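step=encode ok
step=design start
structure_in=
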């Protein structure tokens, strides 16, 4: 994908996050062999420069800073993009979170504007970081109680994800969507990634998720997939991941219950 006469323009949202950083690192490395133009949205450029100090001096990389609700910034990021990568999101169970809805609304508004005003505009493909919890085939392997605990402990960011995802999926005249649906995200070294449409393991490291994202984006053979799971090859180590998963479920349930109590009193 992408050659010197016809570079591939990739717009990236979420580049400063755990998944986004790995993706940007891989794409920068791929720029040597593939003709890729990266257009990166950030809300805080300083944070991106902490991770990639010389990124602004690189050829074919442009960085756009602003609010996610600022359609002009989002339009500049999306300008001429054939591929959009979105790894925006929130992991903590914070009531009212709407990062993904804001991102989806701005992306849709920008594409509507391009479609109406640019004769040569072409529909891009969006690779959206979603969750295995919302893939019926993947979730069917989970015990029902565990599935309920996970949905409840992350109820607020999941509500944001589901609303944003629905808006994007229904906008078929503006974009095609591939949902990347990983299991639990873990900050550890990679053990190799697995891309699978039938099942996922218990966990995926950010390293493996980022590498898989790049493979999915850069290999056109994957571009007809609507939803795909990504796991680490050694992502089934239950005893290794259980303490971290239980810790997150505990604090997520705590936030969910506290919100219910205060919401019912209000
Ligand atoms: N935790 C899990 O086990 C799990 C499992 C499956 C799927 N997921 C999904 O993974 C996603 C989180 O991925 P991650 O861990 O890579 O996220 P992350 O490290 O928290 O990064 C989130 C990104 O979103 C940006 N962002 C957050 N709020 C923003 C705002 N108001 N305006 C603009 N940008 C904003 C952050 O920018 P800054 O750097 O400036 O903050 C960062 O670039 C969630 O959507 C979740 O549903 C999580």
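sequence_out=
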């Amino acid at each position: 994908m992408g050659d010197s006469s016809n570079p591939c323009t990739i717009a990236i949202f979420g580049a400063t996050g755990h998944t986004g950083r790995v993706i940007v690192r891989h794409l920068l490395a791929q720029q040597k062999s593939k003709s890729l133009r990266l257009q990166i949205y950030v809300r805080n450029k300083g944070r991106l420069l902490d991770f990639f100090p010389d990124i602004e001096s690189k050829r074919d990389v442009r960085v756009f800073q602003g609010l996610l609700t600022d359609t002009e910034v989002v339009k500049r990021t999306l300008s001429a993009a054939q591929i959009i990568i979105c790894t925006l999101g929130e992991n903590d169970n914070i009531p009212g979170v709407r990062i993904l809805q804001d991102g989806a609304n701005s992306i849709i508004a920008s594409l509507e504007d391009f479609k109406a005003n640019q004769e040569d505009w072409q529909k891009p493909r969006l690779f959206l970081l979603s969750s295995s919890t919302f893939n019926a085939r993947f979730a069917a392997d989970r015990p029902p109680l565990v599935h309920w605990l996970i949905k409840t402990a992350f109820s607020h960011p999941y509500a944001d994800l589901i609303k944003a995802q629905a808006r994007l999926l229904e906008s078929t005249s503006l974009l095609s969507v591939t949902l990347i649906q990983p299991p639990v995200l873990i900050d550890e070294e990679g053990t190799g990634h697995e891309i699978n449409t039938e099942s996922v393991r218990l966990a995926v490291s950010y390293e493996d998720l980022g590498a898989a994202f790049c493979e999915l984006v850069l290999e056109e053979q994957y571009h007809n997939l609507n939803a795909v799971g990504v796991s680490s090859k050694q992502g089934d180590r239950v005893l290794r991941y259980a303490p971290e998963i239980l810790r997150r479920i505990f604090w997520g349930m705590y936030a969910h219950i506290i919100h219910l109590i205060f919401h019912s009193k209000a």
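step=design ok
step=annotate ok -> The beta strands are 8-13, 36-42, 61-65, 83-86, 125-129, 176-180, 184-186, 193-196, 203-205, 227-232.
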